[in-house]
Design a protein that fits this description.
Blueprint lengths: L1 H28 L14 E2 L4 H13 L9 E7 L8 E4 L2 E6 L8 H14 L17 H9 L1 H12 L1
Parallel strand pairs: 1-2, 2-4
Antiparallel strand pairs: 3-4
């Protein structure tokens, strides 16, 4: 049992190292330009995430909110995340999102959720159906996408 635990931990650490090195390679190869209209540090991110992030920033401005992006140094995809997470906000570092969601209609929900943790320190909402709910499945994703405006409004109201 101990041997399997050590092997699992070893594979996990190797996978994290490979994902981080891939992220560094992508960053060097394809740097994201710093938009001129932002007054704070713009996190490094992959091209599929940039339009979602910019929409989120615009909605922060529309809601007169000042996000704390010090804990969001990057937003990138990872091959695997432990315990089946769709996304993961790593304290004081950045955000990882499962690679399988790269071209998914649910990517926006996951990015908003993780930015809620990283920029506003929002906890999970285990009572209500909301963007900050920790429970995610294909059915839940379809509900969020279908009723996006309702859940997005609730998200911003919870931050204010």
């Amino acid at each position: 049992m101990k041997k399997y635990l050590i092997l699992t931990l070893l594979f996990f650490l190797i996978g994290c190292g490979i994902n981080y090195r891939y992220y560094q390679y992508q960053k060097e190869r394809d740097p994201i330009p710093q938009p001129k209209y932002l007054t704070y540090k713009y996190p490094e991110m992959e091209k599929e995430i940039t339009p979602i992030f910019e929409e989120w920033i615009k909605e922060c401005q529309d809601n007169k909110l000042d996000p704390d992006l010090d804990n969001v140094g990057f937003i990138c995809f990872a091959d695997t995340l432990f315990y089946g997470h769709a996304g993961l906000q790593i304290d004081n570092e950045g955000i990882l999102i499962q690679e399988v969601f790269r071209n998914s209609p649910y990517l926006k929900v996951i990015v908003y959720h993780e930015l809620g943790h990283g920029a506003f320190n929002l906890p999970h909402d285990t009572i209500n159906a909301s963007i900050m709910s920790p429970f995610f499945s294909d059915l839940v994703g379809k509900i969020y996408v279908t009723n996006w405006e309702k859940y997005k409004k609730q998200y911003w109201e919870n931050i204010n």
